[in-house]
């Protein structure tokens, strides 16, 4: 039997790495002729990623996680944005990546079974490695963990005139013009983020195919705009690919989580609003206080993953510990003791799967959106960074699948005031029947897409045909 090997690389963030690993898992499970190697990049500032990689490597049966030799991170004067940092950091591994691929190729020619290295998958910010694949004549693909709408935006990156704050931008992957306020910092800030993103977008066109973690039924318009793009080769919507148990495997605080799930077990069905802002999300004290006041006034049961801002740019937020003073209004914890729980990091997917959870205030990272749709829990939007403002816009305005709290919040923006939080939580939990119904339907559609002959299933089959032909 001919066997097929595929190799993946992703920048070391939870949002990009986790879906890559899950996709490798999906592919090798679907077709046992495939085996996968995920090359991982070590970043000392992000111990959580390293922990995730170790725990996932220990539990993966059909995929191998291979840590590349450690390379010093770029010096602060070499980049201005996070995208700049990650793009350079991955690029600096070029030599090691080439070496790893060569080693796989030579093992394959020495082995008695016939094993073929059929694809090297890069992610949205590691396209500097496309050349390595070309040099070794390995077909190169892109695995894209953000929505098709943002992929389309990246391919048609607008030039933004900083003087015109009210301008709008027509982009083929959106039905409505995009207000300037929802554009990502990458495009608005005058730093290296813009040039990196346009570089990567140019390289997307050099790949043999693009695999997007989305589904036709969720993003028909953006996907059609990509299918119509004659400069792209193949586009495969194969999602939602989700980590339904994984992050629980490297749970930093199992005792706390037992307490959370015991508490959730006692709450009525769909009664709890869950607030969680992602692996990189935290807010300043004044904003935390507005949320607390709004939540208390709204009066719903709540579970709030409140995390402490990091000390330095590349670090993750941390959990508060016993000696920290939480930035909450006086007496907030006492007054809400019966109805709410403030906690640290939580296994988000597991919480969303709990039937006590009736609404999700989310930063709108694409993985979080897919998880909430999978579990049929409506989102209220509170974007923070990355392309999340555009994801929030897509969910609220393009798809009418989410309730709006904010579409344009980001660090340095005006505070979202308590009355807006209160109104948003109310409309999430007791209004928005139409949205709740649509989200429940989409939940079924997501599951159907992955089932035999579903849209994503069929696209995966086409991808496999392409890879093995
Ligand atoms: C999927 O499609 C094939 C070919 O049309 C058909 O033979 C098979 O029964 C279908 N499977 C399901 C579960 O519908």
TrEMBL record:
* A UniProt-annotated Pfam family: UDPGT
Against CDD domains, the record matches this protein to:
GT1_Gtf-like
Q: What class of enzyme is it?
A: transferase
Instruction: Give the enzyme's EC designation.
Output: 2.4.1.-
Question: What InterPro entries does the database record attribute to this sequence?
Answer: UDP-glycosyltransf_plant (IPR050481), UDP_glucos_trans (IPR002213), UDP_glycos_trans_CS (IPR035595)
What's one GO MF term for it? UDP-glucosyltransferase activity
Q: Which PROSITE patterns match?
A: UDPGT
Gene3D superfamilies, alphabetized: Glycogen Phosphorylase B
- Could you tell me the keywords of this UniProt record? Glycosyltransferase, Transferase
Q: Which domain of life is it from?
A: Eukaryota
Q: Which family does it belong to?
A: Belongs to the UDP-glycosyltransferase family.
Mind telling me what this protein is named? Answer: Glycosyltransferase
The record lists the organism as Psophocarpus tetragonolobus (Winged bean)
Lineage in the entry? Eukaryota, Viridiplantae, Streptophyta, Embryophyta, Tracheophyta
């Amino acid at each position: 039997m001919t066997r097929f090997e595929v190799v993946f690389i992703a920048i070391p963030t939870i949002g990009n790495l986790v879906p890559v690993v899950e996709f490798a898992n999906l592919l090798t499970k679907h077709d046992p002729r495939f085996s996968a190697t995920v090359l991982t990049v070590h970043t000392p500032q992000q111990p959580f990623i390293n922990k995730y990689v170790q725990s996932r490597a220990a539990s993966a049966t059909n995929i191998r996680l291979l840590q590349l030799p450690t390379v010093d991170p770029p010096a602060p004067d070499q980049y201005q944005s996070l995208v700049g940092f990650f793009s350079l950091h991955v690029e600096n591994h070029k030599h090691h990546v080439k070496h790893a691929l060569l080693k796989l190729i030579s093992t394959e020619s020495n082995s008695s079974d016939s094993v073929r290295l059929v694809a090297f998958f890069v992610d949205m910010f590691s396209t500097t490695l496309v050349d390595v694949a070309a040099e070794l004549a390995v077909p190169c693909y892109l695995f894209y963990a953000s929505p098709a709408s943002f992929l389309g935006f990246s391919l048609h990156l607008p030039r933004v005139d900083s003087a015109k704050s009210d301008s709008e931008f027509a982009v083929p992957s959106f039905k409505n013009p995009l207000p300037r306020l929802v554009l990502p910092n990458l495009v608005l800030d005058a730093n290296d983020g813009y040039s990196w993103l346009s570089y990567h977008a140019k390289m997307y066109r050099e790949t043999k195919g693009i695999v997007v973690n989305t589904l036709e039924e969720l993003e028909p318009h953006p996907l059609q705009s990509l299918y119509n793009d004659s400069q792209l080769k193949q586009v495969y919507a194969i999602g939602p690919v989700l980590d339904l148990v994984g992050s629980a495997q490297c749970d930093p605080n199992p005792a706390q989580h037992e307490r959370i799930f015991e508490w959730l077990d006692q709450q009525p069905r769909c009664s709890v609003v869950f607030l969680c802002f992602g692996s990189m999300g935290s807010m300043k004290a004044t904003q935390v206080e507005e949320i607390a006041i709004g939540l208390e006034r709204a009066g719903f049961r709540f579970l709030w993953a409140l995390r402490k801002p990091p000390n330095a740019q590349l670090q993750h937020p941390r959990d508060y510990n016993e000696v920290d003073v939480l930035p909450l209004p006086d007496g907030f914890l006492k007054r809400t003791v019966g109805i709410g729980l403030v906690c640290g990091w939580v296994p988000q997917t597991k919480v969303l799967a709990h039937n006590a959870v009736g609404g999700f205030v989310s930063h709108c990272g694409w993985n979080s959106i897919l998880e909430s749709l999978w579990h049929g829990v409506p989102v209220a939007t509170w974007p923070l960074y990355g392309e999340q403002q555009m994801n929030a816009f897509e969910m609220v305005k393009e798809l009418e699948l989410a309730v709006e709290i904010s579409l344009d919040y980001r660090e340095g923006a005006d505070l979202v005031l308590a009355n807006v939080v209160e109104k948003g939580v109310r409309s999430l939990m007791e209004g928005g029947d139409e949205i709740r119904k649509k989200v429940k339907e989409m939940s079924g559609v997501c599951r159907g897409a992955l089932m035999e002959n579903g849209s994503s299933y069929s696209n995966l089959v086409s991808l496999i045909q392409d890879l093995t032909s």
